[in-house]
Every structure is written in C-alpha cells, then in structure tokens.
Design brief:
170 residues, 5 helices, 6-stranded mixed sheet, 6 strands, alpha+beta
Amino acid sequence: MGNLISTKNSDYDLQIATKEDAQLIVTFMKKLGKYQKMEDLITATPERIKRLLEEKLGEAVFGIYKKEIVSFAYFHQKSSAFSGRKGLYIDAFFIEDHVRGKGLGEIMFHYLSKYSVDIGCEYLEWGCLDWNKSAIKFYEKQGAYCIDNLRLYRLSPDTLSLNSKKFVSN
C-alpha cells in the first residue's frame, strides 16, 4: 500500500492501493458482493485486478480505522458524450458493518470528491441497488441524485467475443 493520507478523524486514515494490493481488493469485492447478495457474480481475480491497476484502468483506496482496514473504494475515470465532460466512476464502495455510522464512509466519499476535482473531473458517478435504502439515504445526504431512467446492459466475455466475430470489414 502507498503512503497514508490523514483525515479529519485522527483514528481514520486513507491509503491508495498499489498493484501488490490486488488480493486485498478481491477480498473486499467479495465482501461487497456478499452484502449485495451477489457474491456469485464477483469473478475478479488478483491477476485481473493487478492488470487493471498496472494499466491505470482502475484505482482503489482503503480506509484504515484504528489500524484495521475497514473500508474500500474502487474507481476509474470516464467521460460522457452527453455532457462532453470527464468524470470519475465509483465501481465499488464498501464500509465494514461494525464501523458504519461513524462518519468513515462520508470521509471516504469526500476524499473521492476532492480527488475527482483535483484531476479535472466535473462529475462523480456510481450505481446503487434499489433495495439498499441506507446507501440511497447516505448518497442523497451527500447531494447526489438518481438517474432512474437509465438501465445498464453488459455483454459477457463470451457474448462479446461472439459479437465481435460478426463484424466484417472490406
């Protein structure tokens, strides 16, 4: 892990992940998957995460409370053709149950907001499951709004490969 970043809570520091933290990122993704009742959908491996970090396609930050790693966020830059703006997308955000309600998630969220501004982003975006009322309340408290007329679609690796083979050029 990288150098510690102090926060307004003297018991809570942030630390930027390095490629050596790939296994820890996978561990936190599995915790998030379990919380979201989607554990079987977490297929990330340390090798894949390490590659994403090395290629600068993703970044992560950990929160350390009283010397225990208790929180995590994984994020990456993106852009929007709708707005012509650069943004940051939070792909994963997780706070351990036993430290929720202590303001640690808010500190991490504020850090991600500042980081976004510091690198020239004009928006911060993420997804939230519609049943996760406590997260929705937290995000709305931060001033976020829901774009609820949008559904995300994805091609799996196999379907992506099949579709790519259908392209024919002259």
